[in-house]
Amino acid sequence: MSRGLLGVPLGEPGSGRERYARAMELYQTGAISAAVLEAYRVAAARDAQPPEPVLAERGLPVPEVLPLAPENTIRALIAAADLYLAGLPGPGISEVRQGIAAARHGPVSLVAAEPNPVVDRHLPEALRALAATHPGLAAAIAAARPHLRWITYNGYPRAEIGEGFATGHAFASILGEEASLPAADFDFGLFLIAPQVLYRDHHHAAPELYAPLTGPHGWRFGPDQPLLLRPAHVPVWNPPHQPHLTKVGALPFLCLFGWTRDAQSPAQVIPARDWAELEALRLAH
Ligand SMILES: [Fe+2]
């Protein structure tokens, strides 16, 4: 297979568009230029023709980067995420890293990429912000993105959790019971919430680590507590049943999350009187 095909075989229906999607991932991580991406957009209509002539016509190089096989994008993401966690201070980091170490060499189960509107709309902006300081981690997330099972969770009663969160978030478990790699009573992955959305007060039995990759975002740890702004890369550790709320800032909220046990015990919303006010609040950059 020629390098310009970006790992997508020639001739399959939709393969031109799939190459364009892979080129978009490379563009988002800075690996190719806007002009090369545009050439892939033009070539996307022709499943049976390689992109090289379109690139050559425009005097552009064939991308140097060979995309990883899908399984290896997941393993590379785990490696990048674990390396990132290793540099963070605070409680919960070592517990989560132990869970990762125990499960990361298991078999990878790949899923057919299903579009998720929250991910499609907000992940690129979150990754652009992350890439400014952590380009390796941003690139690893972008590469694994199409092979992760993104879920917009519907386990909360809609009236309790609110419309904004119900339709404005997505998560992808990387290690866990239903994840890309199996792990018993442990859950580790990515969590994305749209800008300015309120994730209302809630609690759960699972001890939880959030490692926010964007920020600042607002947090409180009890309905009677003040909202605190925390920047990116300052982890939050929620011991079992500690109430917590997240008010997303101007950037999409993207974090690594870890549940170190009681991962099947569902979360519960805690009533509060000021949700309407917090939902209307607009946080600045
Ligand atoms: Fe939580």
CATH superfamily (homologous) name of the largest domain: Jelly Rolls
Class from secondary-structure proportions: alpha+beta
Task: Tell me the overall shape.
Answer: globular
Q: Which molecules other than protein and nucleic acid are bound? A: fe (ii) ion
Tell me, rounded to a whole number, the average pLDDT: 93
Largest sheet: 7 strands, mixed
- Unreliably modeled segments: none
Gross CATH architecture of the largest domain: Sandwich
How many domains? The number is 2
H/I helix tally: 10
CATH topology of the largest domain: Jelly Rolls
* Rg measurement, Å: 20 Å
E-strand count: 12
How far apart the termini lie comes to: 45 Å
CATH C-level label of the largest domain: Mainly Beta
Strand content: 15-25%
Fraction of helical residues: 25-40%
Q: Topology as H/E string?
A: HHHHHHHEHHEEEEEEEEEEEH
Walkthrough of the structure:
This protein is of the alpha+beta class and 285 residues long. The protein folds into two domains: 3-57, no CATH class; 70-280, Jelly Rolls. The protein is built from ten helices and twelve strands. The chain has helices at residues 15-28, 34-43, 52-57, 70-86, 93-103, 117-131, 135-144, 158-161, 163-167, 275-280; strands at residues 150-151, 169-176, 181-182, 187-193, 198-203, 208-212, 217-220, 228-230, 236-238, 244-247, 253-259, 268-269. Strands 1, 2, 3, 4, 6, 9 and 11 form a seven-stranded mixed β-sheet that branches. A hairpin with a 7-residue loop joins strand 7 (217-220) and strand 8. Helix 1 runs antiparallel to helix 2, helix 4 runs antiparallel to helix 5 (93-103) and helix 6 (117-131) runs antiparallel to helix 7. The chain binds fe (ii) ion (FE2). Fe (ii) ion binds at residues 204, 208, 238, 244, 267. Fe (ii) ion is lined by residues 204, 208, 238, 244, 267.
